[in-house]
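User: For a teaching handout, I'd like to show students what a predicted protein-ligand complex looks like in token form. I'll give you the sequence and the SMILES for copper (II) ion. Please answer with just the structure.
Assistant: Understood, here is the input followed by the structure.
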Amino acid sequence: MSRLLLFVLLCHSLVAYPETSVSFDGWARATAPGATTGAIYGKLQNGGSEAVSLSSVRFEKAGHVMVHRTVESDGMMRMMHADVTLEPGASVVLEPGGLHIMLMGLKAPLIPGCIYKVELEWDESASTSHDFVSGSFGQSTKPERPGQSCQ
Ligand SMILES: [Cu+2]
């Protein structure tokens, strides 16, 4: 790699990752082989001094990712697009039956005990990258075991 290219890449990463102090204690359920959907849960917290709004989510194993909220209407559970804005110091919990990061078009299953990375984009300008751990298939709370990288 040329020095110029390296310099350009370094500058780009500085531009793409300004001071966004968001933490995410994320987890997911494992998905069965061939399943095309999954979800990421966990606690998002804004440790910064400005409000931030989630503009997009990227996960390399999913073709499409959205933020959803599960709502009950007429006795049916439905999922709707949801916006997430965090005031300074505020947090929000994503959990089964509520707010979640919906993974669609999964290209590979989420394997129990594996750690993956998800990238969150804020205000269409800043990105943060977070690890999350995949639990068992019916996992309903964050797995207790820390998990391991499976790359
Ligand atoms: Cu959903």
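For the handout, you might add this sentence: Residues 68, 79, 100, 102 surround copper (II) ion (CB under 6 Å).
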